[in-house]
Amino acid sequence: MSTTELPASHAELMDGVYRWQRHIYNLTRKYYLLGRDRLIAGLDLPPGGTVLELGCGTGRNIILAARRYPDARFFGLDISAEMLGTAGAAIAHEGLSGRVMLARGDATDFDAGALYGVERFDRIFVSYSLSMIPGWEKTVLAALAALAPSGSLHVVDFGQQEGLPDWFRAMLRGWLKKFHVAPRESLREVLESESRRTGATFHFRTLYRGYAWLAVVGPRQ
């Protein structure tokens, strides 16, 4: 497992949040981190493709993706050493250590070549992490810069619950705040703007009446 110099405050915050939660994370989050499996199914990897997950957490998504795409190589980045410890153990338990490489780093500023020996990726995905990353817009830019020419960026995260009752939105926001999570109101705008700037394709859909947003920034036209 590789590492780089990290912003201490956020790394320490995430380690503190997940030091104990990581043991029950997968069990509890499956009820409200909706759309993750749909994102994985839509990766549509080329044979022998390379995939980077930013904010890989416990490794749940990488493990499922590695099973679905057995010819691909996977790379995971997370700022929390606690989460990476859990992810590494889970990946080893599944017998996937030969195809999955983890590194500790900041998703807003990372050197993929130094961390993994891979400069560009066929697919990069971010699942419910942008809503936890300070300066998350930098993560979008860093991900797009690390894509291969024919690569695509896949994002799923909390939407604005635009089709759901106000009371539900207030309750959800209050709950998420306890875990330092804030749905990004401008997520669609930022992704669409970067797609236009780079000449890339852009696909966006709302899930479950706006509970979640799913977006793909595809190859340049």
UniProtKB/TrEMBL annotation:
A Gene Ontology BP annotation from the UniProt entry: methylation
Entry's EC annotation: 2.1.1.-
Keywords tagged on the record: Methyltransferase, Transferase
Record-annotated Methyltransferase domain positions: 51-151
The organism's place on the tree of life at top rank: Bacteria
Methyltransferase recorded as keyword: yes
Classification via PANTHER family: CYCLOPROPANE-FATTY-ACYL-PHOSPHOLIPID SYNTHASE, FATTY ACID C-METHYL TRANSFERASE
Protein name: SAM-dependent methyltransferase
Organism name: Mesorhizobium newzealandense
